[in-house]
Amino acid sequence: MSGVQTLTVGEDEGEQRLDRWLRRRFPNLNQIKIEKMCRKGEVRVDGGRVKPATRLEVGNAVRIPPLDEGEPMASGRNPNVITADDIKLIQSCVIYKDEHLIVLNKPAGLATQGGSGQTRHVDGLAEALKFEREDKPKLVHRLDKDTSGVLLLARTGRAAAVLAKSFNLQQTRKIYWAVVAGVPAPKKGTIKFGVVKAGGHGPQGEGEKMIAVHPDMIEATAGAKKAVTDYAVIEAAAKRTAWVALAPLTGRTHQLRVHMAEIGNPIIGDGKYGGSGQTNEGDGWGAQLGGDVSRKMHLHARSISLQHPITRKQIRFVAPLPNHMQKTWDLFGWSVGDAADDPFADEE
Q: Which of 144, 146, 230, 270 is catalytic?
């Protein structure tokens, strides 16, 4: 039987029912068990009693009672069994560490948490990031499985609470780099399409997809949420593709991917929103460039700026490009040094 767990609702996990969130995290939990735990007050959100239909918000702390062996911890695997290769991998991702924080450069292809069949992910491998502490660090936000880049973990409960609040109140500054089909016009702008979730298939909602909603239709569309993204073109290769910086001003599920696809410039390698079978001939559509360009997702959480949760000192972390994106930069002759730390700073 597992011990009590306290999990933080990630950036792309808000606005969903508690029971569905639990089934994603713990695939072996059934609805009857979830309803019983809620009824007995064993599951709590921010310390309060809840119902299965309670809607979660980003940053909520969810208390999970001890679970039977058939209902594994959120890692989806025994957290004490990590291979030597996994230990080497996750420790090689560390780009910063102090008494309160660990910052990773998450590789593309590694899920942040369990759910939907994921058994190998950062949350499970975090057992190898305890170093001199007894408890593993806690996730305070998430990245999509195929998105690489800066990922923060808190090493103490106090740091976790402060960071969760910071993300929830949008007090962090995140800059992503992406390669997109075509060249967005104008070269700087703000995308304000809302997003609404379209149901997937399967018991865990596999295949879910977000759909863009015109700003004028957000209030009239059930379940739609406002979403805002700043973008700026840094370099372009003729009219066929561009290196863009993206700054999400809201934290909706798949927001950057949905927004870039909606304006006709899907992110290269994004089969979900750009069409896996489409090739880009220069008209701004097609998630694959062909040739020597990798078919992997070209979306990278380049940097994050925030106040340190304990010292309150302003800090910024930068993650180097993954290999498949660096090869694309080399192919087009782009240099990471040509981009400003914050391409949008002169507009603020």
A: 144
